[in-house]
Amino acid sequence: MTGLADLAGWAADLDPTPADVEQARRALVDTVAVTVAALDDPVAGWTEGEDAALRWAAVGHVLDFDDVHLPSTSHVSVVCAPAALACGGGARAYLAGAGVMARLGAALGWAHYRSGWHATCTAGAPAAAVAAGTALGLDEAGLARAMALAVPAAGGVQRAFGTAGKSLQVGFAAAAGVRAARLAAAGASADPAALDQWFALLGGTGVPDPTGPAIPGGLAVKLHPCCYALQRPISAARLLGHPRDVRRIRVHARASSLQPLIHSRPRTGLEAKFSCEYAVAAALVDGFPDAASFTDAAVARPQVRALLDRVEVHAEPGGDDVVAGCTRLVVDHATGPPTEVALDLPDGHPERPASAADLAAKVAGCAGDRAAEVSALDWDIAAELLRDALPGR
């Protein structure tokens, strides 16, 4: 086998290091915590009776609080952890899928994301097939067939952002990968070269790099339940404190870092998760935006709406990811000189990792009375917890 099917060989031969396994454990805890936090979301009800992987991934993603692999611009864990868990897999199955997703998404490149594709779904379906297939014991050839069988479901677009469609299409990708792996395990045939044709049709030109840790580049952890492109504007706004006599707030950022932020005047909590204007206003009002900041009621607050109308977003040309350049905020006051702050990286970025206290606070905020249980999860217990909380087929 040649081409993208070589990733199946990488996955089949994967021998995780202790650092890889620890990365998988942190990803598991984070993913389950944000899933537990969303158990009362309507998506949990709408997906009742669907496949387990679909429910776990969709509910896990609906708050947009799950981790991100920045080089691929994709949410790796919320796809690969449910796919692995649904088929009885553990850390190695998750890492095999996550590593394929990270490499495949990075090879598709920024041009793929810039054109409007949702890389979590395009790269996610074949990766979920690898996670599930590894859990089911498929060899290299079986994994390659599973990846090829997932190709018909490897889609998803950014226009879904701000609606339930975003989290649901992530669930569809995870479920498609599990379905493909089970079919491959049953003996279904497929041509692995379909992966290369699909890749070319999507405009992919890169070549996946099999070297490095299981998840090259690490994972970014979110401290606020919204699009990762908002983590830096929020962190920057928090540096301003609560400025007085605000006449105007100017946000200057690279165009690529604003790509997913398609709702300038959000009407709902889901739309607010993709609004730079709202995120800045909420950070100035709330201090530390949390789940309560991204509800329909929070978006309608007069204080926030008034401040939101004073936010101007200025896109500077260029950039090739959602953290390109820096975010610069300038506050023009009714009297006196302007106040200005700039920030390169948000807290939780792999190069500026969240502290243990921040991570513990996130789990506590998400899981409440179950925080200690979630913090101590292993893969078997995680599967039991999700089956109890979100039973699926």
Mean pLDDT: 95
- What's the architecture of the largest domain, going by CATH? Orthogonal Bundle
Count of all domains: 2
Binned strand content: 5-15%
Low-pLDDT runs: none
* The CATH superfamily title of the largest domain: 2-methylcitrate dehydratase PrpD
Instruction: Report the end-to-end length measured between terminal Cα atoms.
Output: 34 Å
Structural class: alpha+beta
Output the CATH class name of the largest domain: Mainly Alpha
Rg to the nearest angstrom?
Answer: 20 Å
Helix content class: 40-55%
Widest β-sheet, arrangement of strands? 2-1-3-4
Question: Could you please say which CATH topology of the largest domain applies here?
Answer: 2-methylcitrate dehydratase PrpD
Secondary-structure element sequence?
Answer: HHHHHHHHHHHHEHHHHEEEHHH
Largest sheet: 4 strands, mixed
Number of helices: 19
Shape: globular
Structure in words:
This protein is of the alpha+beta class. It has two domains: 260 residues, 2-methylcitrate dehydratase PrpD, CATH 1.10.4100; 116 residues, 2-methylcitrate dehydratase PrpD (60s Ribosomal Protein L30, Chain: A, 2-Layer Sandwich), CATH 3.30.1330.120. The chain has a four-stranded mixed β-sheet with strand order 2-1-3-4, with helices on one face. Helix 2 runs parallel beside helix 17, helix 4 packs antiparallel against helix 5 and helix 5 crosses helix 10. The longest helix has 24 residues. The protein is globular and about 70 Å long. This is MmgE/PrpD family protein.
